[in-house]
Amino acid sequence: MAAENLVESLQEEVTCPICLEYFREPVTLECGDNFCRACVTQCWQGSDTDFSCPQCRETVQGRNLRLNRQLANVLEIAKRLSLYKAKAAAGDGVCGEHQEPLKLFCEEDQTPICVLCDRSQAHRAHTVVLIEEAAQEYKVGNHCLM
Questions:
Q1: Of 58, 73, 91, which closes a domain?
Q2: Which residue intervals define the domain RING-type in the entry (predicted)?
Q3: What is the structure's pLDDT at 64?
Q4: Are both 116 and 79 inside the same structural domain?
Q5: pTM passes above 0.70
Q6: Which of 57, 72, 95, 106 has the fewest CB neighbours in a 10 Å radius?
Q7: Are strands 66-67 and 59-60 parallel, antiparallel or unpaired?
Q8: CA separation for the pair 104, 114 (Å, rounded)
Q9: Mean pLDDT per 10-residue run, the chain (146 residues)?
Q10: Number of domains making up the chain
Q11: What is the CATH number of the domain that holds 135?
Q12: What does the pLDDT read at residue 4?
């Protein structure tokens, strides 16, 4: 599967089936389906007793909506990937923080960085390689997986 398809698949997983936008405060119902807190609350407005999942229609006991922190974390990663994909498509290989070319790749954070980022506290103890080397390792690794 191409990397672009992986990003699109990830974006689908972090999209609310009600508003069709990225989740805002993702909550998981007892049935396992996920929604924005505001979307599911709005769906249930006016219903006093029986609450059903807007997706699978399974009856849900009560309105105990707990934030799905793991999904919220995956959502943030998906947003960053989406932004990176958009910048890459535009040919924008420039660090958003330092306006320097992205010549390095931080293996811990799995993201391209500039030379100034490499010297910063955030990446000081991280393993950093030339972006071309990381791309080559990625190609070799994906080729072996097929």
A1: 91
A2: 16-57
A3: 77
A4: no
A5: no
A6: 57
A7: unpaired
A8: 6
A9: 69 93 94 94 82 89 84 88 67 75 90 91 91 81 50
A10: 2
A11: 3.30.160.60
A12: 58
